[in-house]
Amino acid sequence: MKAWLPSLLRLALVVLLIAFVTNPDWFEPLLKPLTENNAPVIYNQGSLLTLTLLHLRIVLIATVAATIVAVALAILVTRPAGVEFLPLSRSLVNIGQTFPPVAVLALAVPAVGFGEKPTLIALFLYGLLPIFENALTGLTTLPANVMEAARGAGMTGWQRLTKVELPLSAPIILGGIRLSVVISLATATIGSTVAAKTLGEVIIAGLLSNNLAFILQGGLIVAALAVLIYDGLSSVERYTARRMGREAE
Amino acid sequence: MQIRFDKLGVVIAAIAAYAAFAAPFATFRANRIVPGQARSILEALPTATGTLLLAIVVIAALIALFRTPLVLRLAASVVALAALALLIGVAGTYLTPAGNTFARVSPASGFWMLIFAFTLLLADVLTRLNLSPLGRIGVLVVAALAIGLLLISGSWDNLSILKEYANRADSFWAEGSKHVTLALGSLAAAVIVGLPLGILCHRVEKLRAGVLNVLNIIQTIPSIALFGLLIAPLGWVATHVPGAAALGIRGIGTAPAFVALFLYSLLPVVANTVVGLAGVPRAANDAARGMGMTDRQRLFGVEFPLAFPVILTGIRIVLVQNIGLATIAALIGGGGFGVFVFQGVGQTAMDLVLLGAVPTVALAFAAAIILDAVIEMTATKRRVETA
Hints:
The complex is a heterodimer of chains A (249) and B (387). Chain A has ten helices and no strands. Chain A is mainly α. Chain A is flat, with a radius of gyration of 21 Å. Chain B folds into two domains: 7-164, no CATH class; 169-386, Orthogonal Bundle (MetI-like fold), CATH 1.10.3720.10. In chain B, helix 14 packs antiparallel against helix 16 (350-386). Chains A and B meet through helix 4, helix 5, helix 8, helix 9 and helix 10 of A and helix 5, helix 9, helix 10, helix 14 and helix 15 of B.
């Protein structure tokens, strides 16, 4: 494969995605064969652009919150004062990942009601685990000689954390964020079953009215977003890994 | 003597204190969908029993708070959990007016927080005990038996989730077996297809990147969309391929759910097979070749057994993921516990949601513990054999 081919494909996907969410009517002839009985071809109960932006916003808020909490917790349990919590937090992460997202979503409804909130909670909780796990891996597998050198240079605990440990773990933490974002993008669509405004609305409208064109456009936008974000974060990760001289996972 | 606090114990004691004295223990509702009225421990139980429960909670929280021997902490968490499990049933009976079939009593936030606090204590003890794989399965079996006994004894019958169950006992087991069949069946299909595909990808390097990329992209399609997209092609197969409809292949229902779960399962199985085979030490392969083993003998006699724990890890990921995803099959008429979850969400009847969600979580949890134990056993066995 030529070196420029992946970049060209990525660019084409970005252009196609933007064209689709801003001017879905252009693509009507393509999707037309998928509908029956003159059903509408393009989702007509809201703009695709708005739904896409709302979808991204919900994922962004949840991921930022999950990153802050997960990294803070990982820092806490890797300090001498919190080391008692380390084994327990490992097993809690393992257990937490067995909870299906639908269950988390449905169980959050009685506590906070329908709409965006249960979706945010589910995405937040579900996003925590991969980030926490990776942050823990990053912070516990630092090269011993580097840590020794930092201590020898007279750095305080705080300096070591912000100048050595966190930068060195950054690529691995980013790997966790990438996983978490991709999971959240897909899980956010399920949020529409509890009335959150996301692209899932388009898919569910398609399921309810038996309209394949709706299901396809909703699904493809989410998949394209996931592929692009995954790709973008992977290259950020490789860049930081190269700068830190650490191999990305 | 210096008194020493346990750091996790401080957290547990704080949660337990808030849950026992400030949060409602049970909720009483005149019927299944009206908003409920909160009842504290002393209001939800006969005075003597309520005082006993409070005493147990306080003593267990104190044991958690200070540095105490592991055995004592284990006993405290088990006694507290058992008391909570038994007495929430008593609260159900006590709060329900005699002969009233519409009233619903359900556990409230205080109950769940107490369960959470003492499960945390139990989890901490079990982690520190560092149980062997068989020991962990044993704990799981004991817990399952205890819950089974409580269910059979009928002491939870007056709780709302079991009233929902009583109304749907037949469909509960039917949907449950559909759920398990979907999750296990698609896993079996993925193993049958994924293992050879993984071996092929390992042997033929040109295929590897292509196959893994395609499977990666499938994973990014949101589950509800993939389920929906398969309706059309399967509907077409059902009407155009002779015999397909007779096999139960239909546009909606179990068939598209099965195919979707199968597609999602392929990536972990194939990727872990490739990683596992790539991790086989070169020396082992060289030795096998030197002994004059054929490719096939080498695959089954050397590579496959050495890669097995890694492949099993892929299967564990798939099984836990499938048990969760099978809930979504309900949206396209595929059945499973998701039926109750989505019905419950639709009727804002949370007990119905719980009836679907609790067994799903329990299944996924049990599957994870059992497979983790099996993986650890096979991995240590290899190490002993190769050492």
